[in-house]
Each structure stands twice: as structure tokens, then as C-alpha cells.
Amino acid sequence: MFNTQSLAEQSQTNKTMFTRLVYLFSLFTLVMTTLWNKLIQDIRKYFYRKLSSKTLESLLTEALVAEIPLVELEHHWVRTEDGNTIIMHRIRHATNRTNGRVVMMQHGLLETSAAFVLHGEQSISIKLANLGYDVWLGNNRSNIYGQVIQTEKNDDDDYEIKFSSRTNDPSFWQYSIDDLIQYDFPAMAKYVKETTKVEKIDFIGMSQGAAQATCSMTVQPELRNIFNHMVLLSPALRLKKTTNWLLRLFIQAPTKLLGSNEFFIPLHMAQLLLPSWLAGIGGPLVVLALGFMRHPFDTDLTLSQKAKIFSGLPIGATGAKNMQQWFSML
Predict the structure, then answer these.
(1) What distance in Å separates the CA atoms of residue 206 and residue 231, rounded to the nearest whole number?
(2) Which one of 174, 255, 299, 320 has the fewest beta carbons within 10 angstroms of its own beta carbon?
């Protein structure tokens, strides 16, 4: 005959143990999340302090263009309707400006304008400038060129890096691709047209940048009157679920692990601090593992050149919310 009292006591004991385990797990999760957030904040402070010791001219886009003869670079601060400021880079040949054509270029996700100058004189932006084009490289509010406020030049004729106080406000990072479509792209396109006084401009967009342009002209049809020819490189307009296991792991990871402001800021620290040889080896492996490129970087590049490319891809990166929106479409 069963002892119903013993069974009831055993059941109660199991419930008590389970409740305690839930409490312990919740406490552990809370402690680990708090420690992780503290670590991220400390890394973030160091990251911005490290960048604040530089000048705009020492950043990748500027440094790469400075190595190219007879090419001049200008900084232009563009104001969006919702109050953000974005730096655009204007590249022109020092003497050959006879083409009369203007071309605007927009980078992809996790990139900056440096994406269009990474290959030196072989870069498409430089080749166009050498042909006499007036080349404008766009950025977004998400990367470092969307976080720096306009400053006066110092004694060395360089712009000092001063971050907008808005970047410390979590609300600054609560944007998505919708805001880049609604505000960032239209502001840059209108600024280029108004500054150059040309009737129409040409456009080259890559991945997210191509999607920005296409969707902006859908939301604001009047933008179509600004552009002449448009070249869209791997436009991120039709997405399907990824089969890459590592990327799927990122997609399914708790949002706190990927950051509440910037997306995965430890990656930016690795870009700033890793020695060239390690970044040159690890950078292509990360890009390959995530399935972003089937053949990341040319095989004939040196480790130093690969490290320079890796350091220029997502520095400043993007907001965690924007990344979560892209992940939701995969």
C-alpha cells in the first residue's frame, strides 16, 4: 500500500528544491548581467578615451587618402532632420576636375566611408576622382563619423575628435535602418546636390547603403529627382534565413550580450588593440566564419594590409537595435 503522506512530502520537497534552483539561477543571471554590463561600460569608456586622443586626420579614411598623391579630401558636416550630425568625405583630384559629374557613395552595414578607399589608388572612389569626378563618401549616425561634433582645426591644421554628448544617452542608440532611410540618406543626398549645384548626381551603394537609397526614394519620392544613374552592389533588399551556424548563434544570443548601445563593442576594442599580425590572421577568419564573404580579402595582401582592412570595417559599427532589426530578417 502506498504511503500518500510520504509522496506528498516528497512532492513538496521537490517543489521547494525547484523553487530554490530558479531563485539561484535568477540571482546568478542578474549578477552575471550586472558584471557584464559593468565590463562593457568600462570597455566603452576606454574605447572612447582611446579615440578621443586622436584627430580626424588619423582615422582610417583620412589616413588612407593622405597616402594617395594628387587627391584632396574635405570634411563636410551634414545635419539630419532629427538633429544628428554626419561627416561626409569629399574626394577630388587636385588638378583634374574637368568631368563635371558628381557621384555619391554609401557604405554597407558595419562599415564606414573607409570601405571605398581601402585599396588605395585601386579603390573605386580614387579611380573616379582621378577621372575628374567629384566624389562624396557618405556615413551614417551609427559609425564614428556620425558621433563626432564639428570642431575647429588645431595648431597642426587637424580636426580634433570630440564626441557628441548624445552618444552617452541610450536614446541616441535607439535607431534602426528605418531612421537611416528616413533621415540620414535624404540629408546627405540633398546636401551634396545643394553644395555642388549640379542638376543630378550619380550614386553607388553597397549592401545596406544600396537598401538605404532604394527605400529612401520609396518613402520620399522627390529624392528620385536628385539622382541620375544608380549602381547597387549586393543590395540588401531581399533577405532569406541564414544557414551559417555561427551567425545563427549571434542572432539567437540574448540582446544584452550584444550590447544595449553600440553593437558588440568588444569587437571594436579588438580592432584598436590587436597587433597587426594577429588582426591580419583573425580578421579574415571572423569574416569567413560569419559567412559575410566567401573569399574575404585578396590572398596576395600582406598581413599588415589585411589588418588595416579589418580595422576599417566596423569601427564605430552600428547600434544594437539596428543590428537586432537586421537579425530579425534573417
Answers:
(1) 9
(2) 299
For residue 7, being part of any structural domain is answered with no
Q: Which residues contact 171 (CB under 8 A, 6 or more apart)?
A: none
What CATH number has the domain bearing residue 96? 3.40.50.1820
Residue 38 belongs to some domain of the structure: no
Report the helix count and the strand count for the chain, using DSSP H and E.
Answer: 12, 6
Of 185, 265, 248, nearest in space to 220 by CA: 185
Region 101-119: what's the mean pLDDT? 88
310-325 residue pLDDT tens: 665 545 467 777 777 7
Residue 62 DSSP one-character state: H
| Confidence (pTM) | 0.78
Q: Three-state DSSP class for 55? A: strand
Residue 71's domain comprises 51-328
Residue 43 domain-assigned? no
Exposure on the CB side of residue 290, measured as CA atoms within 13 A: 11
